[in-house]
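Rotation project, supervised by the postdoc (A.L.). Task for the rotation student: set up a whole-complex structure prediction and record inputs and outputs verbatim in this book. Inputs entered:
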Amino acid sequence: MDVSQYLEIFIDETKEHLQNLSQQLMILEEEPDNADTINEIFRAAHSLKGMAGTMGYKRMQHLTHIMENALSEIRNGKMNVNAELVDVLFQCLDALETYLDNIVESQDEGTEDNEPIIARLNVFLNGGGGEAPAPKKEEKEAPKQEESSQGKEVKLNEYEAKAVNEAFNKNLNVYSLEVHVDENCILKAARAFLVFKAVEELGEIIKSDPSAQDIEDERFDLEFTIVVITEKDMEIVKKAVENVSEIRKVVANKISNVPKTAGAEETSVEKKADSSAVAVAEKSSAPAAASKSATTTKTGGKPVVNRSVRVDIEKLDVLMNLVSELIIAKNGLMSVSSNEEGMVSAAFNEQVEYLERVTTNLHESVMKVRMMPIETVTQKFPKMVRDLSKKLDKQMKLFITGEDTELDRTVIDEIGDPLMHLIRNSADHGLEDGETRAQRGKDPVGNIYLDAYQDGNNVVIEVRDDGNGIDVEKIRSKAIERGAVTPEQAEALTDKEVIDFLFQPSFSTAKQVTDVSGRGVGLDVVKTKIESLGGDIEVKTMLGEGSTFIIRLPLTLAIIQSLMVEVGGEKYAISLGSIQTIEDVLVTDIKYVQSKEVINLRGTVIPLIRLDSILDIEPSQENVESLTAVIVKKGDRLAGLIVDSLIGQQEIVIKSLGKYMSNNSKIISGATILGDGEVALILDANALV
Amino acid sequence: MEIAKIENQTTQYIVVNLGIEQYGIDIKYVDNIVRMQKITRVPKAPRFFRGVINLRGEIVPIMSVRRKFELDEDVITDKTRIIILKPEHQEAIGIIVDEVKEVLALDSDSIEKIQSNQNDEKAKYINAVGKYNDNLISILNINGVIDI
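Outputs recorded:
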């Protein structure tokens, strides 16, 4: 069978299941008795097995099969969860991930059989109560069978009951067939289909439980029930079904009386749902409802399928570009309407405003399509920290908040590695070992926090630990040792400048190179990556108390709301997201701190930045009494940008300045085309503050 | 005749005036020729970049060849043009010229390669001299000119 066309889906789904598996295993480690978790793990392993089998990945299938066996033992209370077992399960997970990686690369699962892991699992399977797995299986099946023969009376609705009635009138036989599919069956739906086909040759299927659609979609466990009307004998029908391969057992029952009560029950339940409760039927409807809920819990747990379409990111890029063009065109219209005052009617203005609303909404919608929660990146970290904890022999915990914070897809794709680096850093260099922590009066379990949140037009991701913090003096001496600075220069450097050394290539302060980190290829790569995404990174640290790495990323990459300002006859755009307030500053209020201009704004001292001097514009000679300051913020730092005048708020499309211009200064982050076709530059407040 | 043409490959050049000299630009590099328009200055950019313009929705950097060649400042007249160059695999870039004269087809016989002098900074901007009637046309080495 050619399955290559399903490969992509297989990879995506396998990733999902592995992720789920990893999360659930983490929970299982904490709560070994959590039945829901065990069920969830079982289901994940089971689905993986089925999928791997369908795709012909035999080794993967075998491994998941063994996992499934072990989990089913746990599920049935035959085996207890202990740390060792969880460990083995984690190893299985790693092995499965390796298979998947191989498949992604070469469409082939590779040749690793992972015998040791399988052997260890088998030890658990055989160890437990000294019983071989085979008899256990039977035991496990026994109660199920009981339950099915008693409790699983087929419920027929009105129409079906009518059909049965008619069948009786015509002297036809009605059977209910309970079909048990073999546990190892991979294509359950296909088997079920064959059963349906075989039965349909002999008679008419009037009912199936779960519904035919659910069976087709493989939404059933290992058995399903069908009701068939036929003139043939029961044995013939039974044989026909049993002839289908991988069908383990068929329990056939003849329905001899019209199941009136069942029909009544069903209808009463339906009526109840229709809001008019029938008092008399209430008693009898209770068990029906109970059995219904029982079946839903069985099939439940599978996440509600989101209605979604896979779209190539490039198509979205095209869409985004078109939206950009539309906004430029709209800005053009707006400037036409504002230039020729009196010439245009109010209706025209109204339409332009309407157009603006539509384009803004359109832009937001397209942006949203491109957004993904950061969770897609962070969800693999708990497992990573767990592994690091074992590897480094330090106890640590990871706390993640704000996983639902959304970022542009292109950013999401790139941000994973830098975050991973930072967490590794925290785990390896940041956190002290348990003993040291105890001596310092800290909880021996180290904490790493990953917090993501939106801040204006930025998304901020903080990676924080309560470890040792960065030893600034150590870096200082290291910098001298490396010859990066002279001792005199080093003395003059501020702590912040010293910490910046960490972001330079091959500058590692780790005394020992471990296989986790310490090779000095880390923070500089992180910084480069984040800057290439238009973001920046800063560090806050307190020796002995921990350090925080703060990553700031632009929320949107293409279109922003901005404030247009004028400086020396030139127009500049400042992202609205970074603007705090706009203030009129009296010249007499300007004070000097370290010969730099500052103002005291409602108790906060804010440095002033003369944009004209920074932008190499001839300062105006006029003596003015007050200046206009645009107060911008970056993190918790503020600065006042002095501008000549304010033009107004505008939605702008960010265009790159190209390689010829972009390498000289970071204060210009791009350019935009105004409504009249003129080019205005975009000031990056982050680079100015 | 036909055969002779193939042997002596002709190349088309756009001939422009820049100060007192005439320069030729291989037509394969030229994307467009536009009139002088408002150039938005970009602070902190190299001096020979006058800024950027909007060319049908694209931001295109504009270089002053006069500044690059250390000639007198550009004098903007009615005849001043911006030639948009689009070298292979590179971003478009505009250069300011005093005047666009004509398009000239020169065969390889009438083009003389210049021995490049490593010490002369300006030599890398010109890679040949074309002879046409009595005029001498310096053929611009576009990759050298736009290299920064």
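Student's summary: The two ends of chain A are 62 Å apart (CA to CA).
Supervisor addendum: Residues 313-339 of chain A form the longest helix (27 residues).
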